[in-house]
């Protein structure tokens, strides 16, 4: 599985980087790809509208708020996905930070791009398993009004603690650090890209991309 170098540059805040920086990112990406690979789990559940969000009855998980209702409008099922680079990436990043902070920033950006590539691979696998259905864009806790507080139940629904070694701290950070959870709706009919942009993101007030005058691309 290969990451998108342009994504790594975007996470680094260097989309318009010079050739030397691009070479450094490409090298770090190749080293990371040779050392480890994203791992993911997913499950597909029936989904139904509830008064305060969308409910997955089989696992008892409520996706509260208007974001879930909008994104899953017209969907009969929803896939929960968890993807991680694992503890090996965290160790690799700490070792790099001890030697070279500039390279560590590059490795960290590559890690973000790599785990997103893993999510993309999971999405392709889901699409191949359900060829008669149409997938929505994926969206994650913390975006819009879908709260981070559902992370522990999200991880529990996927058994990602046992299967991937993912845990959630009391402050709702996921460990290992490069871990992503996401929801993807599945429908009998094509689904448009419904909601995008900074205005709906729960992190907009403290977003590092907005501080740089850019955005995450979602």
Beta content comes to 15-25%
Tally of separate helices: 8
Instruction: State the name of the first-level CATH class of the domain at 37-85 and 112-211.
Output: Alpha Beta
| Basic shape | globular
Distance between the termini: 22 Å
- At CATH's second level, what is the architecture of the domain at 37-85 and 112-211? 3-Layer(aba) Sandwich
Major sheet details: 4 strands, antiparallel
Structural write-up:
The protein is 42% helix and 19% strand. By secondary structure, it is an alpha+beta fold. The chain has a domain at 37-85 and 112-211: NADH Oxidase (3-Layer(aba) Sandwich), CATH 3.40.109.40. Strand 3 (53-56) and strand 4 (61-64) form a beta hairpin. Helix 2 crosses helix 5. The model has no long low-confidence stretch (mean pLDDT 90).
What's the short story on this structure?
The chain has 218 residues and is α+β, with helices and mostly antiparallel strands. It is built from eight helices and nine strands. It has a domain at 37-85 and 112-211: NADH Oxidase, CATH 3.40.109.
Summarize the helices and strands and which ones pair or pack.
Elements: H1 5-12, H2 19-35, E1 39-46, E2 48-50, E3 53-56, E4 61-64, H3 66-71, E5 77-84, H4 86-99, H5 101-129, E6 134-135, H6 151-158, H7 160-164, E7 167-168, E8 174-175, E9 179-187, H8 208-211
Antiparallel strand pairs: 1-5, 2-3, 3-4, 5-9, 6-9, 7-8
Helix pairs in contact: 1-5, 2-5, 4-5
